[in-house]
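Practice record 12: protein with copper (II) ion.
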Amino acid sequence: MRSGAPVRIRGLAAVYIALAAFAIGCGGGGTAGGSDTSDEDAATTSAPQPRERLPETVQTLGIDATEYAFEIDPDELEGLEAGWTRLEFDNVGQEPHQVMFARIKDGVDMAELAAAGANDSSGAGAIEFVDMIGGVSYIGPGQQTTALVDLTEGPVLAMCYVPDRNGVAHALLGMSTTLTVAGGSASPDPAGADGAG
Ligand SMILES: [Cu+2]
């Protein structure tokens, strides 16, 4: 038993727990907090978009969901390119599944993140260390859906936080992985030539 990796593993676990708590708090049919429809979710997925306005994609990412794992094509270990990515999500399992992406912010110290997660079971302390990217909300067994996600350079967490029958987020049962996203050939220039709105 060596003691090299646990800090990182614990850090990721803290993120999954935090995001699961965050998602349950935000989405889950609770009675608190009002019921206004969420305009802010419009950018993530299911809103139909006119075909001519879709951004050009740099790659297609196929993800099959089962209990409780993602099968990702191309293999996440081969790395992905930053940019708009077409996501083809296929629930080949027996339970509802989703895939959501989050990015650990630049400069985050994993030990610090782990500590924040460990000291705050609500997840609020750890959520500030990540940016939610988007993904697809849950679909039933045998269903498929597609979405576009804008992947940014760096490690990107992919996870399903649909709860199982015991209320445990699937991410904590194995439906979580880290994608490596490279900068891509043409690095985006924030001051750049994007003249179109
Ligand atoms: Cu799941």
